[in-house]
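Quick log. Single chain, no ligands specified.
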Amino acid sequence: MSVKAKYQPVLDLGEELAIKNGDVSEEGGVLKIKGEANTQYEKNLLWDKIKEIGGDSPTDVKANITVADDSVYHRHTVKSGESLSLIAKHYYGDPMKYKQIFEANTGVLSNPDVIHPDQELVIPNL
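-> predicted structure:
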């Protein structure tokens, strides 16, 4: 199996996330991946996928992934049935961090208990 085939799920995720300026090459059994993610969250998703396939310190892949907008962790479009605590749990692993999301979005939200589908929320860097 080629290194590129081994890491194909990473390349597929990069396509799904619309990574910009992407470049992939294979040299001496090492896959070189380059590109620009929209946010740190998307960059983390790519690295998580790399580690899932190659372990914590893979030697057969080198990735240079930059971030277009490092002023926020991510931008999230609210879906039906979501709450700030559910969103906080998804991005931070801690539902109590909903307060930080609320504070970052006081221009859009007036009450942390009231959010609506299709609202775009800033998920702040912690």
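The mean pLDDT is 96.
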